[in-house]
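Handoff note, outgoing to incoming analyst
You'll be picking up this chain. Sequence as last confirmed:
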Amino acid sequence: MSFFAEPIANLIQEFSKLPGIGPKSAQRLVYYLLRNSNEEAKALAEAILELKEKIRLCSICFNITDCDPCVICQDKERDHSKICVVEKPSDVLPLERTGKYQGMYHVLHGAINPSQGIVPEQLRINELLSRLQDGSVSEVILATNPNMEGETTALYLYRILEPLGIHITRLARGLPFGGELEYADDVTLAQALESRREF
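Most recent structure output, in case you need it:
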């Protein structure tokens, strides 16, 4: 038996599904929303619906976007001869914040992890290979996370990209092993990007 009215219990349950939100945090969020006006609650609900309705993947780099191609892929001022390969869309923003990289991106949407059933065929690797076919790309920067899955993915990519004769680099070890790009500070990330090395 729940101590909450059904609408409250339902929303607490939904908030609890979010990463980093436990039952107590979910309960605080629900009571916060109850104290707010109907207009504020509607604005939040509409923002969530708009997110789900308008956001899609760029057909070139597979980053999340509300236009296709995304603004980075459309930008003629950027260096289209470089592609930085990342695991998740959330990895692009910290690299952009450094202001040190002006090339293109490719989002894999995961990392190789056989123990969780994630194999190379489930990632956007074939799409990356397609982007490299015309010979216009001179460098691929492997910016997978510095953990076991990221290293496995980088090594796999290196092995399939090396025969193409493209310059392959890896972010330098300014990033702690086991960390994730989206949580790295800007200075460390900028140094890792500038100090990238031969694979």
